[in-house]
Write a structure and sequence with these properties.
The protein has helices at residues 3-13, 36-43, 47-54, 63-72, 77-87, 103-111, 130-135, 149-155, 157-160, 166-183, 188-200, 202-209, 258-272, 290-295, and strands spanning 116-119, 125-128, 219-225, 229-239, 247-252, 306-307. It is α+β, with helices and mostly antiparallel strands. The chain has two domains: 3-87, 434 Repressor (Amino-terminal Domain) (Orthogonal Bundle), CATH 1.10.260; 103-307, Beta-Lactamase (2-Layer Sandwich), CATH 3.30.450. A six-stranded antiparallel beta sheet has the order 3-4-5-1-2-6. Helix 10 packs across helix 12. The longest helix has 18 residues, at 166-183. The chain starts with a helix and ends with a strand.
Length: 308
Amino acid sequence: MSELGDFLKAKRATLSPEDVGLPAVGNPRRVEGLRREEVALLAAVSVDHYTRLEQGRVAAASDNLLAGIARALRLTDEEHEYLRMLVQARPTRRGRSEPEVSTAMRDLLDALPTPALVLGPRTDILAWNAAAAALFVDFAEIPAHQRALVRLVFLEPRIRTLFKNWEQVGAEAVDRLRMAAARTPGDPRLLQLVGELSVHDIDFRRWWAGHGVRTMAGGRKTLRHPVVGDLEIDWQVLQVLSSPGQTLVTYTAPAGSPGHEALRILGSWSAVAPGRSEPTVAGEVPGADLAELAGSDESGPGVPSRVV
């Protein structure tokens, strides 16, 4: 079955007739969740038309039809958008080159005192600043073809162990990857990434099979950092309009909060220890005393951002 069919079937399975105000006809029911005819009734469409849509035998579907199905299946706004993208999917052109990070964007990364990344459409980390390397890891140590953020969340121990609530972070990362897959259907590199993660991580396989979707819009993360300890940080996503497919992700914390102080210390560290993402000894900063950095009001100039 196609991704569209798998998605609709998965969403049907999460609802019972009682959930949508229908009588539970047949007990026990042979089909988990709603039947196709029940969805068709709720969406005000013929059973045949809905069946053909779920089986991928409909070339196009109107916005009204998709809105009716979204209401019938109680889809979120993100799931409704995902459904629309699946129906209107056009195969990704093979062999297209990755968008380059502009000089202006690199200058912006260098100027930001807070950790920041530039991501590509597959969550590839295209560029980063020194503060981001201090917060996460020196991405230059990781081969470019393995530098997808979602891959690092699952397969890079230094990243995975940073998150105190890793299961939530991992599940949400999978949901965002599925949304990215709908934007670039048939992308061979993205399919390869999904295959690699499915082979190597049982949690990824489980969450991918759940057909959850989520946009990349920001939120809050709780980290356990080997240098500055526990901290809460907010992350925001900005679209790079001059380079479609690229996003700028920044990490901040409210002024006066422990997280804000921790980011300031890491920023100071990145300024005095260029090119390093980890201290020689946990809790010790090469070339500077961590206590001195904590007491300093000057973070110093950042080191140049790294790009692929």
